UniProtKB/TrEMBL annotation:
Keyword Endoplasmic reticulum in annotation: no
Annotated segments matching region Disordered: 1-21
Family affiliation: Belongs to the cytochrome P450 family.
Keywords assigned by UniProt, alphabetized: Heme, Iron, Metal-binding, Monooxygenase, Oxidoreductase
Biased composition (Polar residues): 1-13
Protein name, per record: Cytochrome P450
InterPro entries tied to this protein: Cyt_P450 (IPR001128), Cyt_P450_B (IPR002397), Cyt_P450_CS (IPR017972), Cyt_P450_sf (IPR036396)
């Protein structure tokens, strides 16, 4: 039950000038201060670098409504000049470009592969990949870049193995993801990179059609060729989501989790020391770090209202786009007590970092497993882990989809 005063429904005719969005964070992992004044207003009007103006929802309750109410459509966004930070319009065809019933049909092809029980079977494999990477780092000796040497190759190797991307093409997946996530590539570069990448995708599909294997590519090819459940365009769309969404997010979060644990936090408990002393706390700590770290710079995929819909007391008219800030919702004091503190054993942690509702992250169990194993193994293998450079020398990324550091130089 909300404790906020009810403001009645406001008609969209009284709208103020749009705020410039996203609120780019230039340093650190704190929630951008410009979200604070929005806490007491239901929706704000925002203008992104490209596309139409949008409504921004920041309250936990409103964010969950936008993400789960079928009156807010993702499929519509593909047909519109959707608000976005990069030039590239969103491609159709995949899970995050469809609404039910198409979405339900596409997701049913993959959902069995991503259940908690199925993913738990991968724990040993994830541990072995992590240990292999740490062996190399320990052998070479400190210092090391925890981002490049560990946070990147762990999820990358795993998703490429699960999908069935040949080892020699892992680098291509990375360069394609870099382009997609930079938001600043010129149309010519984008076009060239897309042509290159999708030519490789066609090569993998051809190889899997000739020689099926025990991987997700084979599963998708069968659903397309034998069962007729998905079209070739949908297959490629889903594959693209699995490959890009399957490592970029986790890579960034591994780096961010360690940055948060290693950076000095005056007036806060020694988070790293606590995890070292109580490794059984790691699964809960992962949930709390997922809540706390504002991974996406407010850049969730816009939804379009299919009909006039009241949201947080504001009338969103049919055809208007709405963006949600998961980062702000995760710090909403109505949903989390003491939201700006990291509390590993926080009870009932209803963060929305994996989304909410029908598009809830397909890879959430996989991501959790990777994040847990990453924390466990690094803490066990690198006693005395600490930053290798003064805090002032750390280089934060700016104006990109994902917040975080360029490199994370560590010693142990
Ligand atoms: C820390 C890591 C991750 C985070 C924070 C994350 C976050 C999210 C979020 C917020 C959504 C919902 C988007 C929306 O509703 O607009 C989503 C969807 C999705 N994620 Fe993740 N993700 C992570 C890891 C992964 C991994 C490892 C995979 C690999 C399988 C993956 C695959 C997907 C897919 C396919 C969707 C679309 C689901 C649908 O539309 O039904 N994600 N993710």
């Amino acid at each position: 039950m909300s404790h906020r005063p009810s403001q009645g429904t406001t008609d969209t005719a009284q709208r103020p000038e749009p705020l410039s969005y996203p609120f780019w964070t230039t340093e650190g992992l704190d929630l951008h201060p410009d979200y604070r004044p929005l806490r007491d207003q239901p929706l704000a009007k925002v203008r992104l670098p490209f596309g139409e103006d949008a409504w921004l929802a920041t309250r936990h309750e409103d964010v969950r409504t936008v993400l789960s109410d079928p009156r807010f459509s993702l499929a519509e966004a593909v047909r519109r000049d959707q608000p976005r930070i990069g030039r590239m319009p969103r491609a159709g065809g995949g899970l995050i470009a469809t609404d039910a019933p198409d979405h339900t049909r596409l997701r049913s092809v993959l959902s069995k592969e991503f259940t908690a029980r199925r993913i738990e079977r991968l724990r040993d494999r994830v541990g072995r990949i992590a240990d292999g990477l740490l062996d190399r780092m320990v052998q070479a000796g400190p210092p090391a870049d925890l981002s490049e040497d560990f946070a990147f190759p762990l999820p990358m190797t795993l998703i490429c193995e699960l999908v069935g991307v040949p080892r020699e093409d892992h680098g291509r997946v990375r360069s394609w993801a870099d382009i997609v996530c930079s938001g600043s590539a010129s149309p010519e570069v984008l076009q060239k990179e897309a042509a290159d990448f999708f030519a490789r995708v066609n090569g993998w599909l051809h190889a899997h059609r000739q020689e099926p294997a025990d991987d997700l590519l084979t599963l998708l090819v069968r659903a397309c060729d034998e069962d007729g459940v998905i079209s070739e365009e949908e297959l490629v769309g889903v594959l693209n989501e699995l490959l890009v969404g399957g490592f970029v997010t986790t890579t960034n979060q591994i780096g961010n989790f360690f940055s948060l644990l290693l950076l000095p936090r005056p007036d806060e408990e020694d988070l790293l020391g606590r995890l070292r002393a109580e490794p059984a706390l790691i699964p809960k700590a992962v949930e709390e770090l997922l809540r706390f770290v504002p991974l996406l710079n407010g850049l969730t995929l816009p939804r379009y209202a299919l009909e006039d819909t009241e949201l947080g007391g504001v009338l969103v008219r049919a055809g208007e786009p709405v963006i949600v800030s998961q980062a702000a919702a995760n710090r909403d004091p109505e949903a989390f007590s003491d939201p700006d503190r990291v509390v590993f054993d926080r009870p009932g942690n209803a963060h929305v970092s994996f989304g909410y509702g029908t598009h809830y992250c397909l890879g959430a169990h996989l991501a959790r497993l990777e994040l847990q194993v990453a924390l466990e193994r690094v803490l066990a293998r690198m006693p005395g882990l600490r930053l290798a450079v003064p805090v002032a020398e750390l280089r934060w990324r700016s104006k990109q989809f994902f917040s975080g550091l360029h490199e994370l130089p560590v010693t142990w």
